Amino acid sequence: MQPLAERMRPTSLDNYIGQKHLIGEGTALRKMIERGHINSFILWGPPGVGKTTLAGIIAKTLDIPFFTLSAVSSGVKEVRETIDKASKSRFLDRPSPILFIDEIHRFSKSQQDSLLQAVEQGIVTLIGATTENPSFEIITPLLSRCTLYTLNHLSDEDLLGLGNKAIATDEYLKKKDIELKETAALLRFSGGDARKFLNNLDLCIGTFKEGDKVVITNNLVINTLQQKAVTYDKKGDMHYDIISAFIKSIRGSDPDAAIYWLARMIEGGEDPKFIARRIVISAAEDVGLANPNALLIANAAFDAVNKIGWPEARIVLAEAVVYLASSPKSNTAYNAINTALECVKQTGDLPVPLHLRNAPTKTMEQLGYGADYIYPHDYPAHFALQQYLPNNLVGWQPYMPACNNQTELQMKAYLQAMWGPNKKYQ
Q1: Which among 119, 108, 101, 13 has a CA at the least distance from the CA of 52?
Q2: Whole-model pTM?
Q3: What is the pLDDT of residues 153-194, one digit of tens each?
Q4: Under 8 Å between Cβ of 109 and 143
Q5: Residue 131: helix, strand or coil by DSSP?
Q6: What is the full DSSP assignment across 156-195?
Q7: CA–CA dist 202, 156 (Å, integer)
């Protein structure tokens, strides 16, 4: 008999659970499917939230050939053979066949390179599924050819709805007298994963004899699954909860707590590169300009972890974690870039002032490109007053130095001395 999760796998968008931000009425992806034409995209999200199911539903809805590859067991040869099969199934008046690649983050660079031409030429429409951050695991040329859609953990409401639906409609379960009396443990062990939720439910139901009333309680679930409530699942909720606690402990300047959460991740079998990446991010986002050396330490730790791996990598990570947690903190660079990005979205493509433009040709020079530019190194202190922002943004200041650390106080003093009343740093 198939597992309950497989038996309950939806075959249409109307029966698909969760991810309303992606496939709800009026969303971009839903509209593409309804129009009968989709572009290549990557589905990024934790396990058991419907990535594979969604790809299958799209292929069925559009009634087009559907080819699948698993990055775990396929090499470049298999990729090329599958693309060749897909190309032979194309019809001029039909959408391109779908090539679905599960765990695409496991593909090597050469394997991902082998997909580029087929995606670029529209030989196949690629749908990739990954549980890892595509920015780190998928090559830029391939990522640039795809739209990225993020899937979320299913809510408790989604999971309970799915469980009740299974009890009411599954060929085998609807014959039983089943009551979901308590659901907290079932939800906790599932961690937003529909597959895990349904299979755990099925396992608990299977502990009852034929004809008995099935009453699901928290104790029954715990005893049946024989798991601890604090089990670390590096692909489930605990993965996200613990890394969150880890980063917040560094941000909060508590090296003891940060080391504890680091140990939890190490014991749980977390990928050391994942931890090291988050340390680099924390160095820039949370320590920032209060101690610029933190980014150097973090980056050195990332390099070392890649070279030596477990178990010695724990020492490198611990050193970086203690250093970051014990450093003064500043998020001024983080705030500055976010403010600037929001400004760009609001103001659009403002023209570059003429004096800041390059003039590689005579025509550009005649048009005034580069005219009146002041070369700062020709002046005392290598500084001269000059406008660098677009005309519409003169006086705008996204970066405001923090006043609670020595490094930025020195930066503030320098900038104020140079710009005088033209810029005001609080």
Answers
A1: 101
A2: 0.56
A3: 899 999 999 999 999 998 889 888 999 999 988 988 887 889
A4: no
A5: coil
A6: HHHHHHHHHHHHHH-TTGGGS-EEE---HHHHHHHTT-HH
A7: 17
